[in-house]
Specification:
Helix content: 40-55%
CATH class of the largest domain: Alpha Beta
Shape: globular
Number of helices: 13
Largest sheet: 7 strands, parallel
CATH topology of the largest domain: Rossmann fold
Order of helices and strands: EHEEEEHEHHEHEEHEEHHEEHHEHHH
Structural class: alpha/beta
Strand content: 15-25%
CATH superfamily of the largest domain: NAD(P)-binding Rossmann-like Domain
CATH architecture of the largest domain: 3-Layer(aba) Sandwich
Strand order of the largest sheet: 5-4-1-6-7-8-12
Number of strands: 14
């Protein structure tokens, strides 16, 4: 099996690459080669199969075709600029998140390869007003440019799949938390920041009210989502190819309470309240809770509490140790 990963230099992409290198197979099929692509050089995990990388702009003319010449059996399309940046830079958001996706899909169509394509969408495809929990029949009506770009990608994925041009599965990721590394430009970044930095002994800024509610899953769950999407029987999914993933719905106050229970008051004291109306407005338009019945019935699983999400971060990123 030959695997092409777009966005291979990102946090989720790097964790997925490490998982692929460790497992050496997907769905019982041995991996023969992995090509990691990004706008910066992705780190290459040690593996029993060939791992290569390429640095380029997926939205540039000819780049998608050059990547598809790798002849992948499986494509992970994780490449995108994040929500806050897409909202701030309209042209860049559409060029990367929409044109890049379109170029990839067209290159696959013209190459007549018909691989499984796993596309990472987002819960930002939904817009207010929201029900108590968004079910599988709730309409997509995004209120941000990022959400709009992802919603268009979902429609393209479903149509190219319907036409038999490839076999696509779109997974709407909840906010991935706790993200390792440094803060990024995602409007949702503070959800991780207020846990990650205090656990590491540093201050973190909270730009929204503690009553803000959101849905989260760990990086470990994100990788599990992607691996399951790569192998799931498309006939079981049916024509509705985009799925909302399960996760933990909780308020910022719930996050902080979980942090306090695990790491104590001194850790929580490192959270600094600094309201940011721009971020608050973006987050206000995001969904808060999901009834992800289709995904659960199809075997997708995630954490069931925010305490569990923090414990995953401590185990996977901190070696089981918390700063004093």
């Amino acid at each position: 099996m030959r695997i092409l990963m777009l966005g291979g230099g990102g946090m989720v992409g790097q964790k997925l690459a490490t998982r692929l290198a460790k497992d050496g197979q997907v769905g019982g099929k041995s991996i023969s080669a992995l090509l990691l692509h990004d706008v910066v050089e992705p780190a290459q995990p040690e593996a029993a199969f060939a791992v290569t990388s390429k640095v380029s702009d997926l939205s540039a003319p000819g780049e998608a075709a050059a990547l598809v010449a790798f002849k992948p059996d499986l494509v992970f399309h994780l490449a995108a600029i994040v929500s806050g940046e897409a909202e701030a830079d309209f042209d860049k958001g559409y060029r990367i998140n929409l044109n890049g996706t379109w170029n990839l899909f067209e290159a696959l169509r013209l190459a007549q390869l018909s691989p499984r394509v796993v596309f990472t969408s987002s819960i930002a495809v939904f817009g207010a007003p929201f029900p108590a929990a968004i079910d599988d029949d709730f309409l997509t009506a995004p209120l941000t440019s990022y959400g709009t770009q992802k919603a268009i990608g979902e429609l393209l994925l479903a149509d190219y799949t319907r036409k038999g041009l490839f076999d696509g599965i779109g997974i709407r990721l909840p906010t991935i938390c706790v993200r390792p590394g440094k803060p990024n430009k995602a409007a949702s970044g503070f959800f991780s920041n207020i846990i990650r930095e205090p656990l590491a002994g540093m201050e973190a800024v909270l730009p929204v009210s503690e009553q803000v509610r959101h849905t989260h899953a760990s990086p470990r769950s994100a990788v599990n989502f992607l691996m399951h999407a790569a192998t799931i029987d498309g006939a079981l999914v049916g024509p509705r190819r985009n799925l909302s993933m399960p996760g933990v719905s909780c308020t910022v106050a719930d996050q902080i309470a979980a942090l306090r229970a695990i790491a104590g008051d001194n850790t929580v004291a490192r959270i600094i309240r600094a309201p940011d109306p721009t971020i608050a407005k973006i987050v206000e338009g995001w969904p808060r809770n999901f009834d992800a019945k289709r995904a659960r019935d199809l075997g997708f699983t995630a954490e069931t509490s925010f305490d569990e999400i923090i414990h995953v971060h401590v185990a996977d990123e901190l070696g089981g140790k918390i700063a004093g």
